Amino acid sequence: MSRPRCERCKRAQDHCLCPLIPRLDSRTRVVLLQHPSETAHALNTARLAALGLVNAQLWVGEVFAQLPELLATPGYRPVLLFPGDEAQALTAYASPDEQPLLLIVPDGTWRKARKLLYLNPLLAALPRVTLAQVTASRYRLRKAPAEGALATIEAVVQALNALEQPQCFDALLRPFDALIEGQIRAMGRDTFERNHGC
User: Fold this and answer.
1) Is residue 12 in a domain?
2) Pick from 1, 62, 38: which is nearest to 153 by CA?
3) Which ranges constitute the DSSP H helices of the chain?
4) 90 belongs to a structural domain
5) In this structure, what DSSP letter does residue 22 have?
């Protein structure tokens, strides 16, 4: 018999993260496009990001038929948070009148994120943005595949912190930090130090 799950955060009821998830407002609209294989991932940080931001949505799939309507959303300038030679570093909005971004964030392994772009040519055609400075990942349980690699929620927080300063979105990381600490406790501190310690 499976353990009862929270309908909102999808964690087991006895590990529900909802009390740690904030409700933060942002000028930037964030849409997270999650590859279906990520929904069962133990962390599922894209879900946590969408739950913690008032102006965010999480879409799960490989092909997104509703993209044309999304990209035509009045009042927003659509961009893709994804590295590339042409990617522009995110900087703070110059004024309160500047058109806010519709920040589209693929969620999946690099291979799966590239597949989302391949299957959705409208995504691949968007202007790309990236983080000017990347702070180290808090995801201490796995070795990053590349320098500067972040969990999806970390990338969203760093992007919003860059765009909307002085507003700070670090509170969005509270449930993520709790998940990491919970996994470390479950494996035992000695095992963590042996396998992941510096």
Assistant:
1) no
2) 38
3) 45-52, 67-71, 110-119, 121-124, 152-163, 174-187, 189-196
4) yes
5) -
